[in-house]
């Protein structure tokens, strides 16, 4: 089963950096960017988060919620947010990463000849009705936010 544009976005209920549960269905009526990333405070993930941060005013002006999802816990998310002044919500999807799995964003990865299960760097835009509007499986971390804004005609 491969997710397609127009499919209902898989709903979820995950804790944010403060431990408060965030449910996707409760955000209906506005666009939501969901981006999955491997780990807080690593080079690629920092570039991606900072690109969203640097474009934050555009997302906010267009009533677009941004949710970053990784396996990291609340303490790690809070440090990452404070270190880089990240203005949006980070959610924890702990192993076995059921939410990332429902978005086909968790699976077998290879690094330096080693295989392991991990979070894929994928991004999704959910429309106000709760359906997938855009899907990005090939993500350039440093420019993902710019690309989403461009594809939505908001650049």
From TrEMBL:
<feature type="active site" description="Cysteine sulfenic acid (-SOH) intermediate; for peroxidase activity">
    <location>
        <position position="45"/>
    </location>
</feature>
<keyword id="KW-0676">Redox-active center</keyword>
<dbReference type="InterPro" id="IPR013766">
    <property type="entry name" value="Thioredoxin_domain"/>
</dbReference>
<keyword id="KW-0575">Peroxidase</keyword>
<keyword id="KW-0049">Antioxidant</keyword>
<dbReference type="InterPro" id="IPR000866">
    <property type="entry name" value="AhpC/TSA"/>
</dbReference>
<comment type="function">
    <text>Thiol-specific peroxidase that catalyzes the reduction of hydrogen peroxide and organic hydroperoxides to water and alcohols, respectively. Plays a role in cell protection against oxidative stress by detoxifying peroxides and as sensor of hydrogen peroxide-mediated signaling events.</text>
</comment>
<keyword id="KW-1015">Disulfide bond</keyword>
<dbReference type="GO" id="GO:0045454">
    <property type="term" value="P:cell redox homeostasis"/>
</dbReference>
<comment type="similarity">
    <text>Belongs to the peroxiredoxin family. BCP/PrxQ subfamily.</text>
</comment>
<protein>
    <recommendedName>
        <fullName>thioredoxin-dependent peroxiredoxin</fullName>
        <ecNumber>1.11.1.24</ecNumber>
    </recommendedName>
</protein>
<dbReference type="GO" id="GO:0034599">
    <property type="term" value="P:cellular response to oxidative stress"/>
</dbReference>
<dbReference type="Pfam" id="PF00578">
    <property type="entry name" value="AhpC-TSA"/>
</dbReference>
<dbReference type="GO" id="GO:0008379">
    <property type="term" value="F:thioredoxin peroxidase activity"/>
</dbReference>
<dbReference type="InterPro" id="IPR036249">
    <property type="entry name" value="Thioredoxin-like_sf"/>
</dbReference>
<dbReference type="InterPro" id="IPR050924">
    <property type="entry name" value="Peroxiredoxin_BCP/PrxQ"/>
</dbReference>
<feature type="domain" description="Thioredoxin">
    <location>
        <begin position="3"/>
        <end position="155"/>
    </location>
</feature>
<dbReference type="InterPro" id="IPR024706">
    <property type="entry name" value="Peroxiredoxin_AhpC-typ"/>
</dbReference>
<keyword id="KW-0560">Oxidoreductase</keyword>
<dbReference type="GO" id="GO:0005737">
    <property type="term" value="C:cytoplasm"/>
</dbReference>
<comment type="subunit">
    <text>Monomer.</text>
</comment>
